[in-house]
């Protein structure tokens, strides 16, 4: 078992959660551990998680009595995985997204083939709607794909890593813990890119369910959510610029680009 996966769950649409878990357990690379963190989850969500854990010994469940947010749940999950000497690579997934069968195998091979200085590999993925149908036009994905090929220095303008990724445990231990919900992933990529290179892989390896009831994007549509996003985003950017010795300027939510992409012919190391 050399890959560790964390799935933080608060409450989730049962059908979405079942699909997400089944997509992980159906991977054609089977040497992984899945840590489900029930972050104050309701009873139906707990029952689904328990059902899958009983069926597969690779699945473990951590329970938090009260919801403490994604960053806290991720940190608990990765703390658990970091105690396993065999785990070399880490990733995490939202409980409504779907891995395609070769997700783990492709990212793992990409990491193995990459130079040692590459600490993170990430790939293309597709948006799907609430019914699981593909979203957006080829032109939309072409534009996003171009951004996802950008050099890591452009992470200050575009959060282009997306939801399909794998990184080295040794690098993660240097980066530290997740923080600054709801931009915990973006803040983490900024910090990680300062100590390692990143590499884009072209295959489409997962489906990202856009604007599902429990998604972060849905939460951020409220006035309170937008304020919370802005505060966390500005702090992440301000601290990243300070670490890099770059003057900071405030940006609006609309200026920050969160990217997905479809395949291209090239792999690129940054």
TrEMBL record:
Which InterPro entries has this protein been placed in?
Glyco_trans_2-like, Glycosyltransf_2, Nucleotide-diphossugar_trans
Keyword check for Cytoplasm, yes or no.
Answer: no
Molecular function terms, GO-annotated: transferase activity
Q: Which Gene3D superfamilies match?
A: Spore Coat Polysaccharide Biosynthesis Protein SpsA, Chain A (3.90.550.10)
Question: What ranges does the record give for the region Disordered, renumbered to this chain?
Answer: 249-270
One Pfam short name: Glycos_transf_2
- UniProt keyword terms in alphabetical order: Transferase
Q: Record's superkingdom? A: Bacteria
Glycosyltransferase 2-like domain: residues covered: 5-175
Quote the protein name from its UniProt record: Glycosyl transferase family 2
């Amino acid at each position: 078992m050399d890959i560790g996966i964390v799935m933080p769950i608060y409450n989730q649409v049962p059908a979405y959660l079942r699909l997400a878990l089944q997509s992980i357990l159906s991977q054609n690379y089977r040497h992984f551990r899945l840590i489900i963190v029930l972050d104050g989850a309701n009873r139906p969500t707990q029952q689904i998680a328990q059902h899958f854990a009983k069926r597969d010994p690779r699945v473990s469940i951590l329970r938090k009595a009260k919801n403490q947010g994604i960053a806290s749940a991720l940190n608990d999950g990765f703390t658990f995985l970091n105690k396993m000497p065999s785990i070399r690579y880490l990733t995490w997934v939202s409980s409504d997204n779907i891995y395609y069968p070769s997700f783990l195998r492709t990212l793992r091979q990409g990491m193995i083939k990459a130079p040692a200085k590459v600490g993170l590999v990430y790939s293309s993925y597709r948006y799907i709607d609430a019914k699981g149908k593909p979203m957006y036009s080829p032109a939309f994905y072409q534009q996003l794909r171009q951004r996802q090929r950008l050099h890591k220095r452009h992470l200050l303008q575009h959060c282009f890593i997306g939801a399909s990724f794998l990184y080295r445990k040794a690098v993660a231990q240097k980066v530290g813990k997740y923080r600054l919900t709801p931009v915990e992933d973006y803040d983490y990529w900024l910090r990680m890119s300062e100590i390692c290179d990143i590499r884009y892989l072209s295959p489409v390896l997962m489906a990202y369910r856009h604007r599902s009831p429990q998604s972060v994007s849905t939460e951020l549509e409220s006035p309170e959510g937008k304020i919370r996003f802005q505060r966390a985003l500005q702090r992440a950017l301000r601290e990243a610029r300070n670490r890099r010795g770059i003057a900071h300027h405030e940006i609006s939510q609309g200026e920050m680009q969160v990217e997905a992409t479809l395949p291209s012919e090239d792999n690129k190391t940054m």
